[in-house]
Design brief:
It is a multi-pass membrane protein. The chain has helices at 3-28, 33-41, 47-65, 69-85, 93-113, 120-135. By secondary structure, the chain is mainly α. Helix 1 (3-28) packs antiparallel against helix 3, helix 1 packs across helix 5 and helix 3 (47-65) runs antiparallel to helix 4. The longest helix has 26 residues, at 3-28. The two termini are 26 Å apart.
Length: 136
Amino acid sequence: MNRSVEIGLFFSRIMIGLIFVLHGWSKFEGGISGTVGFFESIGIPGFLASVVAIIELVGGAGMILGLGTRVFAALFIVVMGGVLLTAKVGQPFISGTELDYLLLAGSLTMLFTGSRFLAVDHFFSRQGNTRQNVSA
């Protein structure tokens, strides 16, 4: 992939990660009980509130760092699919679900392309490649 594409993916990766970190953090801020109650009110088991919050918080941080980008992107796709099929079902696109669809699309992009620019994963893979080349 050329450098300008990688830089563009980098900015998308950072923004997706930041949004998920902030959403995950907000679920814990002031206690998770409010989010548990909301989940239960729409028919989702309450324990999933913590699971989703952890995926968002840890996955968002991983996305920012470029650590496990594709794994966290896949988890974000599951989370956003769940959001769109439960909490946001029936809401309008404008002023309703547009951010959710954008996060879903961005996560799909990260799943299929990854993002190597300034990514921890890429650094480790380059180190591994360097070791292989040196020992060959």
